[in-house]
Amino acid sequence: MNNAKDHLPGKMMALQLKEKVALYNSYMPFLEHGGLFVPTDDSFSLGDEVLLALELTDHPGKKFLRTQVVWINPARTSAQRPKGVGLAFSDDEICIQTKNLIEAELGNNIRSDRATFTM
């Protein structure tokens, strides 16, 4: 029997965040379970499910996160934001662990009012 948690999203993306500045620019703390902005020229629609293969500096290995498209930057904007999509983390254990890891890594910087790729 297939359960909703068993199916894999139809699309997959990879993101490597090797510097804290890139992590800050990509992280979306305003989402309930967190999320990340991924620069891409690919076309997506709001609500698309995406399996995100994430690599973070100082944390070996890839994390495979179930996400959903909740934000779209259609093209480079006047605010110099790259084209891409914002992916909201799901409420599964690996996503919650990743959210906590990212927020610990960013520390007080998470409350900075510096512009990011989304806000």
UniProtKB/TrEMBL annotation:
GO MF, one annotated term: cyclic-di-GMP binding
Domain of life: Bacteria
Pfam family, one: PilZ
Domain PilZ: 17-93
Name of this chain's protein: Pilus assembly protein
Organism: Neisseria zalophi
